[in-house]
Design a protein that fits this description.
The structure is a homodimer. By secondary structure, chain A is mainly alpha-helical. The first copy, chain A, contains 7 helices and 3 strands. Chain A folds into 2 domains: about 90 residues, Orthogonal Bundle (Arc Repressor Mutant, subunit A), CATH 1.10.10.10; about 35 residues. In chain A, a hairpin with a 2-residue loop joins strand 2 and strand 3. In chain A, helix 2 crosses helix 5 and helix 3 packs across helix 4. The longest helix of chain A has 21 residues. The radius of gyration of chain A is 23 Å and the shape is globular. The structure holds a DNA duplex.
DNA sequence: TGCTAATATTCAAACATTGACATATATATT
DNA sequence: AATATATATGTCAATGTTTGAATATTAGCA
């Protein structure tokens, strides 16, 4: 099996773990400091069972590491850099696809069409209806 | 609504788009050069309908941009840096959770337990059964 | 023009799968 | 026993993938 397949499989799993808002938040909260399950639960405003489950997710993928201290279990990031890596992802969000993006596309198509210089048949109005929700 | 919630929502959506191996591969393939749907379909060895749908996904999130050229539709990355960002994610994968990670955890727990110096009751063997699949 | 072939997208059905949450129970530590 | 955390279970909905057919879009050509 080609390495590309293997690697994208692994990557997609990583992304999958982070595809839940709560889990993203956990990572971001842990960026600042170690936190116990209870502390997290309070921050996230969810049940402690739910918190444990999400943590279990992150743990099984090596994102976080547990560290029991008496009755409490502290969690921290196995690789703290992941927090910054995640926020770097913000670069690739928005700006609001449906608005700007179709415009960009339209412009590109237009430039291309104008460029090849053939018959032009009312492109603008039709194109606008293609907007996705 | 606190900004943290909003941001992690957005981020989790981004991650969600990339949580499928095919979509990750598409991004990586597009790192090298623009590709048509047919080319992608051949590379990925899936139907063209499937390819279109995955592209539609990526498009609607502003990851890729279409660019029609005659009968073909070329796709490229809206922000080419995303390809590198994704491969950076490899840093946070493995090395094989179940093996190493439980070991690390065990060591940490042990260090802590040894540190606080109380009764030790055969920690290693028990801990090993905690391995996840 | 109008027809056909090539390319790409969409639709809808079928489908599996997942996965999140709550509740309850279990484990560990003091 | 009490606190803190983990897991197990059931349920529920939502989600997402695939396939095949129908529909656009464009090029080339008669």
């Amino acid at each position: 099996m080609p390495y590309r397949v293997v690697v994208s499989n692994e990557l997609s799993k990583l992304f999958n773990v982070l595809s839940h808002p709560i889990r993203v938040r956990i990572v971001e909260e842990l960026k600042a400091r170690e936190l116990t399950v209870t502390e997290l639960k309070d921050i996230l405003e969810i049940s402690s069972a739910a918190t444990s489950q999400q943590l279990s997710h992150l743990r099984s993928h090596g994102i976080v590491v547990e560290n029991r201290q008496g009755r409490n279990v502290f969690y921290h990031l196995r690789k703290p850099e992941i927090a910054d890596w995640i926020t770097d992802g913000l670069k690739f969000i928005g700006p609001d696809q449906s608005e700007v993006e179709t415009m960009v596309t339209a412009i590109e198509s237009a430039r291309n069409a104008w460029g090849t210089a053939s018959k032009q048949k009312e492109p603008p109005a039709k194109k606008a209806s293609k907007r996705r929700t």
